[in-house]
Write a structure and sequence with these properties.
The protein contains 15 helices and 8 strands. By secondary structure, it is α/β, with parallel strands linked by helices. The protein is globular, with a radius of gyration of 41 Å. The structure holds guanosine-5'-triphosphate (GTP). Its EC number is 3.6.5.4.
């Protein structure tokens, strides 16, 4: 009987345990399912929104009234942001007399030369030591050895003949001798007109080492020509640096001149050819071609510039080849000048940055070196700071005269 009771108790306990396990297992399952559903909702909601969630999203979006909702056509017609206005075409100032107007730029940096010479010449005794100092002053201003010796010899002779010397006498002597050195009678015309009765634009090639102010000078020269009433096409044959073409184009746009350019790294000769063709087709007066001047090898430069010139000449002669030199580079500029002169026939020199140096004597030295006149000078970064070179105004600026 005891055994029967014991079996019955065990059976009841076992039953209770089994039913308890089943209930807690169900509860756990339900809880896990709930958690994972939550997690799924968080992880996947943005990618796979459920209908309910979409509805909730819509409900939360700011509501607009029917008046506020424009019809598609109305929205399309809404005023767009204003397009950047084309810059107005500028009217450059006339080139005539610019050197006189910009004279202060020259005299500020150059007057040490003229004033130094004048004060030395005013000494009571012009002994050998003083003449040596005069020589040194000229050499420091980059006049060059041979021209310096010539100047000193002639001055010595004239001072000796003169006997008595007033400050006016000395100023007059110095002015005359410096002027002779600079060359008052050289032809400094920039040839921008076609030779002969051919119906094509004048062609000007602008060459020089990068950084000397070549592109800027091409742009400024374009302005000088536009100021004189000529129509101009610019050729960006410096394809080495895309920014150079952009820079030139900006110069052109300012005065309404078209710029012909090619792909970066493209063939400079083909851009130059296209520019002349464009100028001819458009009936332009002048085509100005900016070239690249990388001096890493002379052969490379020779090949490139030589080709540009040859290709342009298929359409007619080049009327002017301007070499741009940075006046602040002194003797280095002369070395560059020599290399370029071997590569192309230079017909004129542009000396830039004369506003930033006291070495204006480079005008004399470079003319001697190449046998070619300085035709234009750069006297600042401003758009109209390029002036035709006038020997008298230049010498007057040096010695601070009228
Ligand atoms: N002070 C002064 N700066 C000048 C003059 N001419 C040019 N510059 C400046 O010299 C810098 C070089 O001029 P660029 O025209 O870019 O020289 P670049 O020879 O064409 O050189 P790439 O563009 O590299 O081919 C610029 O900052 C010019 O504004 C000048 O007469 N006076």
């Amino acid at each position: 009987m005891d055994i029967v009771i014991l079996v019955a108790v065990i059976a009841v306990v076992a039953l209770a345990a089994i039913s308890g396990l089943v209930v807690s297992g169900r509860k756990k399952k339900a809880a896990t399912a709930g958690k994972s559903a939550d997690a799924r909702a968080t992880a996947t909601a943005p990618a796979e929104p459920h209908v309910g969630e979409e509805a909730a999203g819509t409900a939360e979006a700011p509501r607009r009234t029917i008046e506020e909702v424009g019809l598609p056509a109305t929205e399309a017609e809404a005023p767009a942001a204003p397009a950047p206005a084309e810059p107005a075409i500028e009217t450059p100032e006339p080139a005539e007399g610019r050197l006189v107007r910009l004279r202060s730029r020259l005299s500020r940096s150059q007057s040490s030369l003229g004033q130094g010479l004048l004060s030395l010449l005013s000494r009571e005794h012009l002994d050998d030591a003083t003449w040596e100092e005069i020589e040194d002053t000229l050499l420091t201003a980059d006049v060059g050895v041979a021209p310096t010796q010539e100047l000193v010899e002639r001055l010595r002779e004239r001072v000796r003949v003169l006997g008595t010397r007033t400050p006016e006498d000395l100023r007059g002597l110095l002015r005359a001798e410096l002027l002779t050195l600079v060359g008052p009678d050289l032809d400094r015309t920039v040839h921008t007109e076609t030779r002969g009765a051919v119906d094509r634009p004048g062609v000007v090639l602008v060459v020089g080492v990068n950084g000397t102010g070549k592109t800027t000078t091409t742009g400024k020269l374009g302005r000088v020509l536009v100021a004189d009433g000529r129509s101009v096409v610019l050729g960006a044959a410096d394809t080495f640096r895309a920014a150079a073409a952009d820079q030139l184009q900006t110069w052109g746009k300012r005065v309404g001149a078209r710029t012909v350019r090619g792909p970066e790294g493209g063939d400079p000769a083909s851009v130059a050819f296209d520019a002349v063709k464009e100028g001819t087709d458009a009936g332009a007066d002048v085509v100005l071609i900016d070239t690249a001047g990388r001096l890493h090898t002379k052969t490379g430069l020779m090949d490139e510039l030589g080709k540009v010139k040859r290709v342009v000449e298929k359409q007619g002669p080049v009327d002017e080849v301007l070499l741009v030199l940075d006046a602040t580079t002194g003797q280095n500029g002369l070395v560059q000048a020599r290399v370029f002169a071997e590569v192309v026939d230079i017909t004129g020199i542009v000396l830039t940055k004369l506003d930033g140096t006291a070495k204006g004597g480079i005008v004399v030295a470079v003319q001697r070196e190449l046998g070619v006149p300085v035709k234009l000078v750069g006297l600042g970064e401003g758009a109209d700071d390029l002036a035709p070179f006038e020997p008298e105004a230049f010498v007057d600026a040096l010695i601070g005269g009228e």
